[in-house]
Amino acid sequence: MIKVGIIGSTGYAGQELVRILLQHPDAEIVWYGSRSYIDKKYSEVFGNMFQLVDDKCMGENMDELAKKADVIFTATPQGLCGSLVSEEILKNTKIIDLSADFRIKDVAKYEKWYGIKHQSPEFIKEAVYGLCEVNREDVKNARLIANPGCFPTCSTLSIYPMAKEGLIDMNSIIIDAKSGTSGAGRGAKVANLYCEVNESIKPYGVASHRHTPEIEDQLSYASGEEVLINFTPHLVPMNRGILATSYAALKKKMSYEEVKAVYDKYYKDEYFVRVLEKDVYPETRWVEGSNFVDVNFKIDERTGRIIMMGAIDNVVKGAAGQAVQNMNIMFGLEENTGLKMVPMFP
Amino acid sequence: MIKVGIIGSTGYAGQELVRILLQHPDAEIVWYGSRSYIDKKYSEVFGNMFQLVDDKCMGENMDELAKKADVIFTATPQGLCGSLVSEEILKNTKIIDLSADFRIKDVAKYEKWYGIKHQSPEFIKEAVYGLCEVNREDVKNARLIANPGCFPTCSTLSIYPMAKEGLIDMNSIIIDAKSGTSGAGRGAKVANLYCEVNESIKPYGVASHRHTPEIEDQLSYASGEEVLINFTPHLVPMNRGILATSYAALKKKMSYEEVKAVYDKYYKDEYFVRVLEKDVYPETRWVEGSNFVDVNFKIDERTGRIIMMGAIDNVVKGAAGQAVQNMNIMFGLEENTGLKMVPMFP
Amino acid sequence: MIKVGIIGSTGYAGQELVRILLQHPDAEIVWYGSRSYIDKKYSEVFGNMFQLVDDKCMGENMDELAKKADVIFTATPQGLCGSLVSEEILKNTKIIDLSADFRIKDVAKYEKWYGIKHQSPEFIKEAVYGLCEVNREDVKNARLIANPGCFPTCSTLSIYPMAKEGLIDMNSIIIDAKSGTSGAGRGAKVANLYCEVNESIKPYGVASHRHTPEIEDQLSYASGEEVLINFTPHLVPMNRGILATSYAALKKKMSYEEVKAVYDKYYKDEYFVRVLEKDVYPETRWVEGSNFVDVNFKIDERTGRIIMMGAIDNVVKGAAGQAVQNMNIMFGLEENTGLKMVPMFP
Amino acid sequence: MIKVGIIGSTGYAGQELVRILLQHPDAEIVWYGSRSYIDKKYSEVFGNMFQLVDDKCMGENMDELAKKADVIFTATPQGLCGSLVSEEILKNTKIIDLSADFRIKDVAKYEKWYGIKHQSPEFIKEAVYGLCEVNREDVKNARLIANPGCFPTCSTLSIYPMAKEGLIDMNSIIIDAKSGTSGAGRGAKVANLYCEVNESIKPYGVASHRHTPEIEDQLSYASGEEVLINFTPHLVPMNRGILATSYAALKKKMSYEEVKAVYDKYYKDEYFVRVLEKDVYPETRWVEGSNFVDVNFKIDERTGRIIMMGAIDNVVKGAAGQAVQNMNIMFGLEENTGLKMVPMFP
């Protein structure tokens, strides 16, 4: 039984970790961390957990946690994990960080986009970017995982095969993404009130969203080129789900079958990546509540571009699910253990 | 491994049966029945099932089905199950009928409220009303289960302890219920289009809804009196969930603790019924995707009435989940096998 | 041109006042009051007002306001209007208070249900309860209007004809109401976040909601009896709209036609009250954005009860629209001036 | 008083025409056409119109209509208007066609994208493309207006100033659009049911949507170049609204102020086009129920691209509102007569 501590268990991603881990056959939660709700029963914060979780919320005593837990998930705002990690801690336990603290290898880039000083740059190099389908081997032996962002997961996996094979013009990439509102977190802000989000769609972080350098890094690693992209997220009136619609110029004319073969090369053995049938496009409803990434593409012969689309559940494959997938890999379990949830519809 | 056939697998309740049974450790689906989609791949009808179900939809060849399946679920419109059942079939297999065909013991009453002639009244007496928490013993040996309606499940379980103990005036009961739109089915009707349902709430079937006699029957059995109620369902712009708010006059003044003891008497050992803490009321979001029934009550000393509230997921405890719970009981499994899904939020 | 000042113009009701008054032929807004956004441009708070309103938000300097404005609308939390009103002010201007401060004639009752001390009980007697269809004559000469609450407006108008004519048992009344989320206000609270409200329905304020005594008072005035009711509001995932479903025992058997005649007696000349056709029930979508109240009823012969239903747009007839209707009456305008908005669908 | 006939008055666009025209000071509806609901009261089809419209639905007797009406709006499926128009008709009345029949000047292109044979190609040349802000002068004297599509209106107006001034690489344009569900029409289809649309976002018509050639034509006219674009619409779970996010490579480096001056050159005197403040992006909620087009842009210096964004209400500026705007121009009225609706929020 893997003993799990969660720091930040009362955000949406934290709560999803709880939901998943309660149903995981080989894991047990030993620490429900939450600064905001210390000493409050977890099931009072999330009524779905009534009679399923009896624990109270606790602060983040890292020394105690490191002794108790085989692995710690940090589902916390940027900067917190960076301030908590230490060699001492990592000798005793593993950390899977759901924040951005260890995703960007270039500390100056991190500090510029996130506007904060990194508290433990010495661990950035060691940290493994936990995009499981791409970095599986490195994840196996990692002590510290930088769990990917929701948009980067969806965008990168949609584009990866074409980037890796060098088939698209890497500086022609435009990613137009749409996210459900759980991605905005559980903080009490007017902008996220029901009446403000409902019946509307809006772009945000235009040409400035923090996931931009993360996506660019991953696409650069895949293609071996320095990549600059346009990335525009939009807020959609729904709870869960991300859809990324990505556009790129094909370097040469390709048929559907040729591109399909490229996607299959990378994904046909991946349990969580489903390359859809021809002319069937990803829809977030078909992955809701699951760890699946549905991807597909369309070639536009008129413009010479390819449209690459991907859909995930942002709190599962985009956060808690992928974190557990990383845990499974790190602890030598079957990668989909506890993650075979059938998407829930409607 | 229990071999399961589903007739009507392409409605919302049928699809939920598939979702649940795919994750059930002791069941295997051998027949995806659907008149509307014969020969179409099931995963083309429901994209969430892509790479999880390879089968095609089939018609309802009952002889073949009865041989192949240990149990048949009929998630079909009223009248169909009644037309399919026979002694021959029931000798070979069990039937769990999610329609209303065998819920009303008085055939005249059924025919009046449903406006159709019953095709096999000879099986009505044998059929067991599968409200598991109430009729568990009878379910164990049943060949034919009348799986309860969504509103009756939620309403009856909310009121049952008070009715059974004779503590409320049975003819003062008013049930005001609110349902998500999946309860309206997957038929292509203007009234159920997104733009018609969204941003609105409406009552329907006022003083005439077909679940009225079903609820009245159950409350009559519980109380030993002939009961007439008011029942008003409302359509709510959400996918899943039923909330029933029920009002009744208390026969005598009672304290919170006294009423709580009554609820606990019936439900404290029930896995699926959660009696909430004082002054915490049921909300459908806390049971979504699960088989839980959350109930609670409030005494209004000013008016001498008790308000009894219950929340379920209409396609789980209100349909497919309870059907599987019945299957578990009939086949001697732990009652919550494959049904321990943690409610999904948000 | 009526010069209008609005205190509390940046809540949902305040903003709706602005929307309506901008399109009113005889009114002009001279003061956009808002403590929270002083000196911020109004159109930065509400983007819909871009290029329509150039004013900045201001505090509530009552002396200045009373000189500038012919009428002041206070769309503010309970207690504020009570603390601002004075003989001095009322000599110079009229006040239409959208809060509860002057709705309850019994100051002790007000203080008990609202939990605050009333700041100006000397004006309670003078204040006119602005339920226009009922108190039109008194409104004409009022200096201070207590604009009715959203639930009381919808509930009272649904029940009024039956209560006034003495046809129902007044102590059998149960009102089960459902409200869109704009009724919860624009404050930044976790409970009102998109992901908390969406895909759920919940009761709140069970047997304790502050609109209870207001409804009881109005029904008492109508019937001439002391009335106690059960009132249960529910939060619905939609922006606007209230549906009230009310139940009462008929004192004697009545036909549809007889009851219809009673409703017509009171409402057939009312522009804003629409008594629907037989068996057509109110739906909030059909009144959205308008000042209409749609009402209808159904007699249940089995139980001897009548179900009375009403639908309004909570921010129009339930708040800003009715406030403007009161203004029209007070200033001798046609009652529906600036209020003939056709309901917007979908 | 302009006498108006509407063919196709029971679709969402047709109903919006009714809503707008009922509030128009100089227009009167004399014909509520609807093949599907002949002889049914219009207010039974749309409950919001109860007591506002007494008329019954009628078929499309063009001869009679041409005599009765000064202008006919056809809010009908592709092909119908083309089959009804004739010199005879146009001698007696004007036609504003909300379908695509007369939008594409090249009949072969129309027939290829729409897959039907054009019934009256002889009128294509005469027809004026009613994008008011661009073709105002031609609209004045037109007999036959091709009212623009919803996506083309939003996309073209977002991009127009940059295209007209030759500041962007016309073959680099990618338009990623998001639409509310009313755009899918009121037909009874499973794909548009509440539970299918809610809680999901999906792309559709990828690289094949029929609005593509219409947008390309307009951008070609503006720039004087043959333009090919990528256009991807997405279905969003909301009733109304279109957001178009468009990407293009700037031909040369430009500052915010330079681009702003370009937008102001075209739009500063346009009542319905609102160029937002710096770093404020269009959101559909701020234009709901109104005829406004909110536009803005962001320059991404890193990639050398400009992101141009626009938001409209698809049934107003994207259909009925623009149609009435065209009517106003054709009949010499102030262009915003009856169209000054303040956007409704929330």
From TrEMBL, chains A, B, C, D:
The gene is argC. GO terms for molecular function: N-acetyl-gamma-glutamyl-phosphate reductase activity; NAD binding; NADP+ binding. This is N-acetyl-gamma-glutamyl-phosphate reductase. Pfam families: Semialdhyde_dh (PF01118), Semialdhyde_dhC_1 (PF22698). Its EC number is 1.2.1.38. Catalyzes the NADPH-dependent reduction of N-acetyl-5-glutamyl phosphate to yield N-acetyl-L-glutamate 5-semialdehyde. The active site is at 150. It catalyses: N-acetyl-L-glutamate 5-semialdehyde + phosphate + NADP(+) = N-acetyl-L-glutamyl 5-phosphate + NADPH + H(+). It comes from the Bacteria. NCBIfam families: argC (TIGR01850).
